[in-house]
Specification:
Blueprint (H helix, E strand, L loop, with lengths): L1 E4 L11 E6 L2 E7 L4 E13 L7 E11 L13 E11 L27 E13 L4 E14 L7 E14 L3 E12 L7 E15 L2 E13 L7 E14 L3 E12 L9 E13 L4 E14 L11 E14 L4 E14 L7 E12 L3
Antiparallel strand pairs: 1-2, 1-19, 2-4, 3-4, 4-5, 5-6, 6-7, 7-8, 8-9, 9-10, 10-11, 11-12, 12-13, 13-14, 14-15, 15-16, 16-17, 17-18, 18-19
Length: 362
């Protein structure tokens, strides 16, 4: 893939460059009487024409095993059991990646340089079993260990346990209730505990129209705080399908954080996402997305006596054409803009123009 990026550092007045991306992947699948195992190895290389210090090569090894048949004498009928293992070796730290919604202080942090290698191991177990004809319960466990070669960072570990109930009401409404507990020590620091309780509902208005609503409460036990810090996330969504192979989706999400990290200032976030997908022909398809986000505080920041107010906008348009049975071409355009009323260093814009060829053999 080839991209032209107008802001490769993700900072105000960033420089532009041509970026070349190569990502070969090899996979193998075994299906036996007791288990199905899929393994893969992937390399993603990102090479900059005039900024070689930003070059990165990401390697990933993945193993996904479905052990349902092996455990059929133990698990109830209709259950599934998945075990996954992923190994990452990359000079990119996931903790430093930038997203549409910026950090509470209004900065993105830019792109981390110089590149230092990081090893991450992620192990997951997911089990799903029926409780009744219309109800299923899902259990999950995740362990993540990150080893940094950067001498300024200490290795970190995270453990997470989840339990979720899915109940089908009259086959029109599907409710989801879940709880998760996460324990982690970022960069080897003090342990942080997260308790999350979520509730959601999906309603099928008609075969072509469905809506969803969800709310999530989080209690964080942070080092140095005498009591938990709370936040609430909620949102609404609707998806509409049309006969001309077009699908429209609209989602609204709000975050209310009791303590955001800027002198414990409460921070709110609103985000609206709109997406459209279209199949023009059996070989030609496209999609477009628009994301609008705002971060703002209800009280002034104690450090500068100013309220935080950050606006973000992201747009993505893509076209995909099936050249042959094994070769696909992609054309994309991305735009991102961010402005802040508090920190001028948070204001930035970015344009990406890309073209790619993807091949698949099996």
């Amino acid at each position: 893939m080839t991209r032209y990026d107008t802001n490769i550092q993700l900072v105000p007045n960033g420089e532009s460059d041509m970026v070349y991306l190569v990502g070969p992947r090899i996979g193998i699948k075994y299906e036996g009487p007791d288990a199905t195992v899929t393994a893969g190895y992937r390399v993603n290389a990102e090479l900059f024409a005039t900024h070689p210090s930003l070059n990165r090569v990401r390697q990933e090894i993945s193993v996904d095993a479905v052990l349902t048949r092996m455990m059929r004498t133990v698990l109830p009928k209709g259950s599934t059991l998945h075990v996954r293992e992923n190994l990452y070796y990359t000079p990119i730290l996931p903790d430093f990646e930038s997203w549409l919604t910026p950090s509470p202080d209004g900065t993105t942090g830019g792109v981390r340089t110089p590149r230092t290698n990081t090893f991450r191991n992620v192990f997951e177990i997911d089990e799903s079993m029926p409780v009744s004809l219309l109800t299923r319960v899902e259990f999950g466990y995740k362990n993540s260990y990150t080893q940094y070669q950067d001498p300024g960072l200490i290795d970190s570990q995270m453990n997470e346990v989840t339990i979720t109930f899915n109940h089908d009401l009259s086959r029109i409404d599907t409710t989801t209730t879940g709880y998760s507990y996460r324990r982690f020590n970022p960069f080897g620091g003090e342990v942080t505990h997260l308790h999350t309780l979520s509730l959601g509902d999906q309603h099928q208005f008609s075969p072509i129209l469905k809506g969803e609503a969800w709310i999530r409460g989080i209690a964080a036990v942070l080092p140095g705080f005498n009591k938990p810090q709370y936040s609430v996330h909620g949102g609404l969504g609707v998806t509409r399908q049309f006969k001309n192979q077009t699908t429209l989706s609209l989602r609204w999400t709000q975050y209310i954080d009791a303590a955001s990290g800027i002198s414990s200032v409460p921070l709110n976030s609103d985000r609206v996402s709109f997406s459209i997908t279209k199949n023009f022909t059996p070989a030609l398809s496209g999609e477009g997305t628009l994301d609008l986000a705002r971060n703002y505080s209800l009280v002034k920041d104690q450090s500068n006596n100013l309220p935080v107010d950050i606006y973000s906008q992201g747009t993505n348009v893509g076209l995909h054409y099936q050249l042959t049975s094994w070769l696909m071409s992609d054309l994309e355009y991305r735009y991102f803009r961010q402005e802040s009323t508090v920190n001028s260093q948070a204001g930035l814009s970015r344009n990406i123009y890309g073209f790619a060829l993807r091949g698949k053999w099996s």
